[in-house]
Amino acid sequence: SNISYIMRKTKFGHLEHIWFGERMPVGADVDSLVLKHSVTAGGTVNYDESDETYSLDLLTLEWTSAGKGDFRVLPFELVMPDGSRVCDFVFEQAEQGVGLVPLIGLPQAHDLSAERNHALVEEISGGSDDNACDDRDNATDVNPEHLIITMRDRVYDIRIKLIYTLWSECDVITRRVELINDSDSAVEIRRLMSFMLDLADRRFVLTSLHGSWIREGQRQETVLPVGIVSSGSTTGNSSHRHNPAFAIAERSADEMHGRVYGFNLIYSGNHIKFVEKSEFGLVRLMSGINPDGFCWHLAAGEKFAAPEAVLTFSDQGYNGMSHNLHRFVHDHIIPPAWRGRERPILANSWEAYYFNFNQSKLLRLAKQAASLGIELLVLDDGWFGKRNDDRSGLGDYNINTRKLPSGLSGLATKINNMGLQFGLWFEPEMISPDSDLYRAHPEYAVQVPGRDPSLGRHQLVLDLCQPEVRDYIVESVGKILDEVAISYVKWDMNRHMSDVFSVVLKEQGEFYHRYIIGLYEVLERIFKPRPDVLLESCASGGNRFDLGMLCFSPQIWTSDNIDPIERLTIQGGMSLFYPLSTMGSHVADSPHSQTLRHTTLATRFHLAAFGCLGYEFNLNFLNRLQRKEIAEQIEFYKKHRRTFQFGRFYRLPPAKDNKIHWQVVAEDGRESIAGYYQTWQRAAEGCDLLPLTGLDPRQTYRLSTRPLRLELERFGGLINHMLPVQIKPDNPLLRLTGKFYTLPDSAESYTATGRQLQVGVMLNTHYSGTGYNSNVRMLGDFGSHMYLIEAIIDKQSNQEDAQ
Ligand code: DGJ
């Protein structure tokens, strides 16, 4: 709706990229936008002697040729039938149409209107499912339009199809490439990127997400140097090291303003991005399957499809880019049955018990969970085989009846009877050398014959290139899903790949890609017939957080790091490209098992609420006040769950560098919730401003602090300054009092129009070392507040005021 993408055919048949950015009038003269070449540049190769100003190295292109004078990192490398790498693609034809161009074997953005048509056909034929997707009727989508451009090599019958799909309501274009070999010899594909985009440099900054286990989603900004900036994964999954998503923006852009381009890939395997700035100031971007270790044999008559890439542009800063991508993920990536469907609040057994659980412990956890308002109990790792640690059992599906005497069905029934849904953890892509499956089928494991394999977390990977292995997983997981009342699955994957080799492949360079195709097939076969099972994918946390997995799993376990202060960076980074509803986000115990940091229960909730909320610690250890606090958190979350999960999310520019501000605004704009987080306490900081955005300037709102109570224990000996008698800080009486009595934290309330609120709210004084009263905001290190903003007066009555 708000962007234009313009290209044209050159006189030699190449495709010149002219514009991607703000919407331009259709049919207008684009000459002012075109890169000029009035004279030859020294040191270039002329494409054709008839025009010495025409060099592929100087053009902005939609697709390029190899070995014809374009010296960038090329988006493809083909070993041609003549053994050379030279190949010159020129325009053959363009077809425009409506609807999707199907992508076989890989996930692609889906079109709800197609789903609606399908439902209609089923309805007409009498097979409609009334519960299928409540949101379908409200879907505003129009059929996406597509454009297929075919480019043909000048010598061989080898074609490239550039496939563009337009998602107008999200300002997103998806792009991909297919290579078709109609020659009579095989072609070897050494590299085939999903897209390339050439832009004239505008002092661009590259934003990308990097990290490691328990440190995913770290936002990194690089002012583009001349040369190549590249990152990707070689681990067999999209990886926590370098997420496939990235952005480039003009240097002046910030969260709220400026021109920002966003990119992502609908793919979960080895990927790479290249951002190259040429010596002539041309910026060339591309991403796709990582060519490292990749080699695909394309026989005569075959075609190869690269994964779909996602491109967007916004002139409303990084938040604008995020909003386009969030909407796109909500509407066109996550499975249609979960579009706009609220996610349950869960309790997970992992950080409560790790492997050390049994039925009665789980039932005690479930009982507590149910009494607090939690809706789903998830049994994590350790329910099968001899799995009492991470050294055995993966690949086996026999239930450990010593731990679970009533079996999974019995346990699920007992949990259901408490009013909770039941969820189960699986790690289906793995095999432990100490497992019945390995003893029976060592050939199912990924390893090179004659070479000792290296293990990761003491386990091997199952070879998903083999059809028997895929069948084994589909049948084993499917059987449990059919026999047990399971409404949620956590699908884990806990190692990087090594020793890759498949007994069924002739060309081992195809392994990684065929593995991922196999994984998608398995997920499709298990979950397509069971659309109401909520799938949360996980790979040691966010080691496979990508759009490919989101096509099957509406949410992903963002990180094994549940410390809220760490999650500010992790979820804040991820939110650039992925909406809140895709992020599993829990309240854990404090001190945190990943950092030993102490945080308050309030801060843990204030962070976890910006995502799909869960609780992951032993709820039986809570005291009465903590139970009350959690019950209130859950009540609050349930009341505002739609806003938290599906509202419009903003990262707000912090007024100070020890503060972080998040805000989410409901779809209808009538309520909003702001999170105010303090990393380190500073002495005598002075006044504090709560920045807000996204509100209707004419609407009147009431802003109020979510009420908090302060635990006495936090204040140690300082508490004596408030008491009529002196008590030692470690006095058992004080500890006992702390179990029953808390202090109120400052609660503020303002009535104001959106216009007033958006200039920022002057908050009550921050604690400054001069005493406590109930109007002082008591934050301390890692403190936080949450503010609820609700529309109270209809905007019509404010019109006069606005004038
Ligand atoms: C890694 C996951 O990220 C954790 O949440 C947990 O499920 C463990 N695996 C279980 O082994």
List the helices and strands and how they pair.
Elements: E1 3-9, E2 15-22, E3 76-79, E4 89-98, H1 112-124, E5 145-153, E6 158-167, E7 172-181, E8 187-200, E9 204-210, E10 218-223, E11 227-232, E12 242-250, E13 260-265, E14 271-277, E15 282-289, E16 296-298, E17 303-305, E18 309-314, H2 317-333, E19 346-348, H3 350-353, H4 359-372, E20 376-379, H5 407-417, E21 421-426, E22 430-431, H6 436-440, E23 460-461, H7 467-483, E24 488-491, H8 511-527, E25 534-537, H9 547-550, E26 555-557, H10 564-574, E27 583-588, H11 601-608, E28 612-616, H12 624-639, H13 641-646, E29 648-652, E30 659-665, E31 671-678, E32 689-690, E33 700-705, E34 709-711, H14 732-740, E35 742-744, E36 749-753, H15 754-757, E37 761-762, E38 784-793, H16 799-802
Parallel strand pairs: 19-20, 19-28, 20-21, 21-24, 24-25, 25-26, 26-27, 27-28
Antiparallel strand pairs: 1-2, 3-8, 4-5, 5-6, 6-7, 7-17, 7-18, 8-15, 8-16, 9-10, 9-12, 11-14, 12-13, 13-18, 14-15, 22-23, 29-30, 30-31, 31-38, 32-37, 33-36, 33-38, 34-35
Helix pairs in contact: 7-8, 10-11
Bound molecules: (2R,3S,4R,5S)-2-(hydroxymethyl)piperidine-3,4,5-triol (DGJ).
(2R,3S,4R,5S)-2-(hydroxymethyl)piperidine-3,4,5-triol binds at residues 350, 380-381, 425, 492, 494, 538, 540-541, 557, 560.
